[in-house]
Amino acid sequence: MNERFVELKDRLAEIHDLRRAQEVLFWDQTVMMPPGGGPVRGAQLTTLDRIAHERFIAPAIGKLLDELGSFEDGLDYDSDDASLIRTTRRDWDKARRVPADLAAEMVGAGAEAHDVWAKAREENDFATFLPHLERALDLKRRYIECFDGYDEPYDILLDDYEPGMKTAEVRTVFDELKTALVPLIAEVASSDEDDGFMKGPFPIDAQHETSLRVIERFGYDPQFFRLDLTVHPFAASSGTQDIRLTTRYTDHDLTSIFTAMHECGHGLYEHGVSQSLERTPLCHGVSSALHESQSRMWENIVGRSRPFWNYFYPQVQAAFPEALGDVEQERFYRAINRVKPSYIRVDADEATYNLHIILRFELEQELIAGTIALKDLPEAWNARFEEYLGIPLPSDTVGVLQDVHWSGGGFGYFPTYTLGNIISVQIWEKVLSEIPTLPAQFEAGEFGELHEWLRSNLYTLGRKFTPQETLERVVGSGIDAKPYIGYLREKLGALAAA
Ligand code: ZN
């Protein structure tokens, strides 16, 4: 074995350990820690982050990467070792361009803005949040200036979540989706007068048991997974064998079952990364959109399908006799798939959700380009919202102030949610063409063959290839909105016609 390669791997393993420790400390902070621990925990996380960053951008890593050029040339492109060198070179080139003081200022500004945003949202007061948003945007512009060789500035922001993806490509795919979705939603949207039973009561113990019963069928294994409570659900992990899912319960809705399926999708991806990549920077899902494609696959394509509910509905009905005892399955199925424009992105149905995202993607580009002024943002938001979703907004609380992302400088993240939806159906069609019996398997409560296909074709690759290369390997083509549009037309058209 090449000595320099061994040294690079050792260094990267230590840095990866620090990163994973951060992830577990963050999980602990949001799931276990008493609130008083906040300030000290913040300092601990910052320390770990700083040490990991300094170790990674160290010139020694760059020197090793240079020296390993000819070693890399002799390796198979697909091998773990070549992929490690190639991906690390890209990560390193990117990480060292951002000065430490700018990185620290972005973290600090985000921490300060968070509470201001939360209060502004509560009080419907965009004006108090405005200076923080101005600062966040200004820092992002300075961040973009650290890079060169891009087609448009937004590419740099997108690249943090979707490496290699270009804004122009997303715009093309989203325009196609928007053109199809706006009229489709107007056509299939319906009222919810029939859905009173969806307000419960749904006893929380039964929700927890039901969530576990569902995700255990998907591949959740208590030997490697946990499911705990938090305020904003997420999935974290310290490696492929330690997956932490989080969820939340309220007794007046059943969203927890879909949340559990969603986070389980993220967890199965991390759990399925090849163990040969453990303790390397390749030991993660490849990008935000590919990750989201898996959470949406399990939550929506599987979890909102008829075959799934043919198996699970009798159990769910038995678990919640008071709310669902005399609700027939078809009414329940229609309620969980109802398309109805609403104000809040995270509560939106499968179809309208994408218009919430496209709206944000468009406004983010205009903000970065400076073609709309920040003070005019609420007005621009409201006008576009009404244009796309057909309903006016009553306040900024349920409009421009609803999401946490911008307070933390998270520009460029939103599009990955809808890219994930689009990719989920591309992958689903590929699996289904190879295993046409999947729906029949779901009806029998069997999800193992789908899980195994995803594991061996996608999850196992980790970050060995770029997101584009990964998608190409899994489905044989690049990103394409058509399968997703077809899926929504077919599913929602059938519901509207019935
Ligand atoms: Zn997700």
Keywords:
498 residues; mainly alpha; Neurolysin, domain 3; 2 domains; three-stranded mixed β-sheet; binds zinc ion
Secondary structure layout plus pairing:
Layout: H1 3-31, H2 38-57, H3 59-67, H4 69-73, H5 80-95, H6 100-123, H7 126-145, H8 154-159, H9 167-188, H10 204-218, E1 225-229, E2 235-239, E3 242-247, H11 255-272, H12 288-302, H13 306-319, H14 321-324, H15 329-336, H16 353-369, H17 377-389, H18 415-434, H19 438-443, H20 448-457, H21 467-475, H22 482-497
Parallel strand pairs: 1-3
Antiparallel strand pairs: 2-3
Helix pairs in contact: 1-2, 1-3, 6-7, 9-22, 10-11, 10-13, 11-12, 12-18, 16-17, 16-18, 18-22
Bound molecules: zinc ion.
Zinc ion is lined by residues 262, 266, 292, 295.
What does this protein structure show overall?
This protein is mainly alpha-helical. It folds into two domains: 3-149, no CATH class; 167-497, Neurolysin, domain 3. It is 63% helix and 3% strand. It contains 22 helices and three strands. It has helices at 3-31, 38-57, 59-67, 69-73, 80-95, 100-123, 126-145, 154-159, 167-188, 204-218, 255-272, 288-302, 306-319, 321-324, 329-336, 353-369, 377-389, 415-434, 438-443, 448-457, 467-475, 482-497; strands at residues 225-229, 235-239, 242-247. Strand 2 and strand 3 form a beta hairpin. The longest helix has 29 residues, at 3-31. It is globular and about 70 Å long.
Overall geometry: globular
User: What integer value in Å does the Rg equal?
Assistant: 23 Å
Uncertain spans: none
- Strand element count: 3
- Mean pLDDT, all residues: 95
Counted by DSSP, the helix tally is 22
